[in-house]
C-alpha cells in the first residue's frame, strides 16, 4: 500500500489530494481532498499513470505564418512527451485549419489525436 | 474628419478587448470599434500555446489560440468594426487618435472608450541586474513569441530568473524543444506563479527551483556565457556573500513580473493606482474619466484569462450603457486594504449596486480567515486553507451591506 499527496494541476486552486492504493496493480484504495470530479480523475490517473496534454507547434508550408499551434485532443502518458515532440517536429501542414481539425489520428497509438489548436488561413 | 460617432471604441484586441467589444454589442451598443496594433486579433493568447485556459469560463481546458479563436469568431459574427496594424497615439475628449498604413493618421469619436491594452514584461533594465550586455537575454514572453509563433529557437542552455507563470511555462517549452534548463531562480521565498505550473512545468521535468536566489552577474561579451546566482537573505532580499555560483548558459529568460501598459491612460490624465500601476476603477470598470472604462491586465495583472473575460464583458456592457445614457451615476465609497491585503480592485464602489471585489494577499499564509468590513462592522468572513499573492481572491458585496457606509475594508488574518 502506497499513499501519495498529489497536487492537482487541473485548475489554479491546486488542491492537495491524498491517494492510496497499489499503483503497480492499478488499484486505488482511497482518494480524498478533491473538490471536483476533474480533480478525482486527475489524482487517480496521476497515482497510476500520469497523463499530460501535450501542446506544441508544427511547421506550415505556403502560409503567411511559419507555425501553427497543435495539441493532443486528450492527455497522453507523461513519459511519452519528449518522444512525442520528436514526432511533432517531423510534421508540416498546409491549407486551411481551424482549432480541432485532426492532423494525426490516434497520435502514436495513444488514442488521442494530434489536432490544430490555432488557425491557419 | 471624424464623421461617425461610435458608441464604444475598444483600445486593444487581446482577450480583454475582444470580450469588452462582445459585451458592448450584447448590451445593445450600435457601432463598436476595436483598434489593435498587431496584424491579428487575440493578443498574447496567440503565443500561449499551452493548455489551461477556459476551465472557468468554458468549463473546458483550452490552449491560448483556441480560447482566442472562440472570441474572434464571436466578434466576426457581429458587425463590430476592427482596425488591425493600428497604433493608438492618444486617447481623450471622447476621441481615439490612431495611425495605420491604410488610413494614415485618423481620429475616431466614441461616446465611451474602453482601455484594454494589457500589460508588458519587466525587462533587464527594470530589474537592474549587473554585468555585461550580451545577446541571449530575453524576457520570457519575447522568447515565447519567437519559439511558438516565429519558429526561432532562442538557445540551448537556459537559466530563468523569476518564477512567474510565463517563466515556468517557458522552462517546460524550452525543455520540450530540446534545450536544457539549468535552473529557475526566484528572489522571493515562494513561487510567484500558480502552484500547478510549478508541478507540471518544473517538477515534471526535474528543473530545479531555487527560492530566495537571484542573479548577481551576467557574463559574456557577444553572447551570454553564464550567470552568477547567489542566495539572498529572505528578510532583506540582499545577496549573501560567499553563496555565488556560476551557471554556464547561453540564454537567460526573465520572468520578473508584468506592468500594466498605461502610457495612453496617463496622458489622458486618468488616475493611476500606485500599487496596481493601472487606472483606478469602480465596479463598472469606469475610470476617473467617466466615459473611459478599462478592463483586463491594463487595470491589474490577472492570473487567469477567464477572469479577464468576465471583467471585460462587464466593462463592455457598462460602456454600452454609458453610451446609451443608462449607466447610473452615484456617490462612491473607497475599498480599503486591511491586514495582509496588497490591493483591491475596484478601488471605488458605487454602494447602490453589487460589487465583486478582487484582491491579492501581501504574503502567503496557511489557514487564514478573510474578513470584509463595512466601516467597523464585519459583514462577511470565510476560512481559506491557504492564501498566496500569486492567486487572486474575490468576494462579492451586496448593496444592503453598503447602505450609509463610508468604506469597505478587506483583511486576511
Task: List strands and helices in order, with pairings.
The complex is a heterodimer of chains A (121) and B (413).
Chain A: E1 2-7, E2 16-22, E3 27-32, H1 37-48, E4 51-52, E5 55-60, E6 67-72, E7 76-77, H2 81-89, E8 92-93, E9 102-104, E10 114-116
Parallel strand pairs in A: 5-8
Antiparallel strand pairs in A: 1-2, 2-3, 4-7, 5-6, 6-10, 9-10
Chain B: E1 5-11, H1 15-26, E2 32-35, E3 51-53, E4 62-63, H2 64-76, E5 81-83, E6 87-92, E7 95-100, E8 104-115, E9 119-121, H3 124-127, E10 137-139, H4 140-148, E11 157-161, H5 165-176, E12 180-186, H6 195-202, E13 209-211, E14 213-219, E15 226-231, E16 245-248, E17 251-254, E18 258-260, H7 263-267, E19 292-294, H8 305-323, E20 333-337, E21 341-345, E22 348-349, E23 355-361, E24 365-374, E25 377-387, E26 393-397, E27 408-412
Parallel strand pairs in B: 1-2, 1-8, 2-5, 8-19, 10-17, 11-12, 11-17, 12-13, 20-27
Antiparallel strand pairs in B: 3-4, 6-7, 7-8, 9-18, 14-15, 15-16, 20-22, 21-23, 23-26, 24-25, 24-27
Helix pairs in contact in B: 1-2, 1-8, 4-5, 5-6
Could you give a quick summary of the protein structure above?
The complex is a heterodimer of chains A (121) and B (413). By secondary structure, chain A is an alpha+beta fold. Chain A has helices at 37-48, 81-89, and strands spanning 2-7, 16-22, 27-32, 51-52, 55-60, 67-72, 76-77, 92-93, 102-104, 114-116.
Task: Describe what this molecule looks like in 3D.
The complex is a heterodimer of chains A (121) and B (413). Chain A has 121 residues and is an alpha+beta fold. Chain A folds into two domains: 2-49, no CATH class; 55-116, CPE0013-like fold, CATH 3.10.530.10. Chain A has helices at residues 37-48, 81-89; strands spanning 2-7, 16-22, 27-32, 51-52, 55-60, 67-72, 76-77, 92-93, 102-104, 114-116. In chain A, the strands form three sheets. Chain A has a five-stranded mixed β-sheet. Chain A has a three-stranded antiparallel β-sheet with strand order 1-2-3, covered by helices on one side. In chain A, strands 4-7 form a two-stranded antiparallel sheet. The model of chain A has no long low-confidence stretch (mean pLDDT 93). Chain B has 413 residues and is of the alpha/beta class. Chain B folds into three domains: 1-120 and 258-329, FAD/NAD(P)-binding domain; 123-256, FAD/NAD(P)-binding domain; 331-413, Immunoglobulin-like. In chain B, 20% of the residues lie in helices and 34% in strands. Chain B has helices at 15-26, 64-76, 124-127, 140-148, 165-176, 195-202, 263-267, 305-323, and strands at residues 5-11, 32-35, 51-53, 62-63, 81-83, 87-92, 95-100, 104-115, 119-121, 137-139, 157-161, 180-186, 209-211, 213-219, 226-231, 245-248, 251-254, 258-260, 292-294, 333-337, 341-345, 348-349, 355-361, 365-374, 377-387, 393-397, 408-412. In chain B, strands 1, 2, 5, 6, 7, 8 and 19 form a seven-stranded mixed β-sheet that branches. In chain B, a hairpin with a 2-residue loop joins strand 24 (365-374) and strand 25 (377-387). Chain B is globular and about 65 Å long. The mean pLDDT of chain B is 95. The A-B interface holds A 7-12, 14, 52-57, 59, 65-67, 69, 71, 78, 81-82, 85, 98-100, 117-119 and B 46, 49-51, 55-56, 61-66, 69, 148-151, 176-178, 194-196, 199-200, 204, 303-304, 391.
Amino acid at each position: 500500500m502506497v499513499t501519495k499527496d498529489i497536487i492537482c494541476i487541473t485548475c489554479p486552486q491546486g488542491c492537495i489530494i491524498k491517494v492510496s492504493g497499489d499503483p503497480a496493480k492499478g488499484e486505488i484504495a482511497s482518494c480524498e481532498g478533491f473538490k471536483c470530479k476533474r480533480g478525482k480523475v486527475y489524482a487517480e490517473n496521476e497515482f497510476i499513470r500520469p497523463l499530460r496534454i501535450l501542446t506544441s507547434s508544427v511547421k506550415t508550408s505556403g502560409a503567411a505564418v511559419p507555425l501553427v499551434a497543435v495539441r493532443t485532443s486528450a492527455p497522453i502518458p507523461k513519459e511519452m512527451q519528449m518522444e512525442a515532440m520528436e514526432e511533432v517536429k517531423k510534421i508540416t501542414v498546409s491549407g486551411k485549419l481551424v482549432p480541432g481539425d485532426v492532423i494525426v489520428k490516434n497520435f502514436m497509438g495513444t488514442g488521442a489525436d494530434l489536432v490544430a489548436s490555432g488557425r491557419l488561413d | 474628419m471624424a464623421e461617425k460617432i461610435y458608441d464604444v471604441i475598444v483600445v486593444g484586441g487581446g482577450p480583454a478587448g475582444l470580450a469588452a467589444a462582445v459585451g458592448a454589442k450584447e448590451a445593445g451598443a450600435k457601432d463598436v470599434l476595436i483598434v489593435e496594433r498587431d496584424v491579428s486579433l487575440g493578443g498574447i493568447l496567440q503565443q500561449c500555446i499551452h493548455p489551461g485556459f477556459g476551465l472557468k469560463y468554458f468549463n473546458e481546458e483550452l490552449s491560448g489560440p483556441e480560447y482566442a479563436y472562440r472570441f474572434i469568431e464571436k466578434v466576426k459574427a457581429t458587425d463590430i468594426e476592427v482596425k488591425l496594424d493600428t497604433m493608438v497615439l492618444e486617447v481623450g475628449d471622447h476621441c481615439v487618435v490612431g495611425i495605420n498604413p491604410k488610413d494614415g493618421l485618423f481620429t475616431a469619436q466614441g461616446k465611451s472608450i474602453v482601455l484594454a491594452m494589457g500589460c508588458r514584461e519587466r525587462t533587464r533594465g527594470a530589474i537592474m541586474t549587473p554585468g555585461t550586455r550580451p545577446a541571449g537575454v530575453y524576457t520570457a514572453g519575447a522568447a515565447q513569441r519567437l519559439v511558438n509563433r516565429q519558429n526561432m529557437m532562442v538557445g540551448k542552455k537556459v537559466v530563468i530568473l523569476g518564477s512567474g507563470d510565463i517563466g515556468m511555462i517557458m522552462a517546460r517549452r524550452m525543455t520540450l524543444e530540446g534545450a536544457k534548463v539549468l535552473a529557475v531562480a526566484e528572489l522571493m521565498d515562494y513561487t510567484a506563479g500558480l502552484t500547478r505550473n510549478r508541478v507540471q512545468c518544473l517538477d515534471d521535468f526535474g528543473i530545479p527551483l531555487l527560492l530566495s536566489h537571484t542573479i548577481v552577474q551576467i557574463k559574456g561579451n557577444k553572447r551570454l556565457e553564464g550567470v552568477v546566482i547567489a542566495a539572498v537573505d529572505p528578510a532583506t532580499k540582499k545577496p549573501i556573500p560567499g553563496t555565488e555560483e556560476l551557471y554556464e548558459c547561453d540564454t537567460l529568460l526573465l520572468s520578473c513580473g508584468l506592468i500594466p501598459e498605461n502610457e495612453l491612460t496617463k496622458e489622458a490624465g486618468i488616475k493611476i493606482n500606485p500599487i496596481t500601476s493601472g487606472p483606478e476603477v469602480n465596479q463598472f470598470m469606469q475610470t476617473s474619466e467617466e466615459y473611459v472604462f478599462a478592463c483586463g491586465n491594463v487595470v491589474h495583472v490577472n492570473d487567469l484569462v477567464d477572469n479577464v473575460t468576465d471583467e471585460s464583458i462587464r466593462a463592455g456592457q457598462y460602456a454600452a450603457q454609458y453610451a446609451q445614457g443608462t449607466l447610473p451615476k452615484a456617490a462612491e465609497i473607497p475599498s480599503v486594504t486591511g491586514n495582509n491585503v496588497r490591493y483591491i480592485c475596484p478601488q471605488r464602489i458605487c454602494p447602490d449596486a453589487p460589487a465583486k471585489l478582487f484582491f491579492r494577499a501581501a504574503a502567503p499564509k496557511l489557514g487564514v480567515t478573510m474578513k470584509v468590513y463595512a466601516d467597523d462592522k464585519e459583514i462577511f468572513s470565510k476560512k481559506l486553507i491557504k492564501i498566496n499573492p500569486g492567486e487572486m481572491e474575490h468576494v462579492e458585496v451586496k448593496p444592503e451591506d453598503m447602505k450609509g457606509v463610508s468604506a469597505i475594508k478587506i483583511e486576511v488574518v
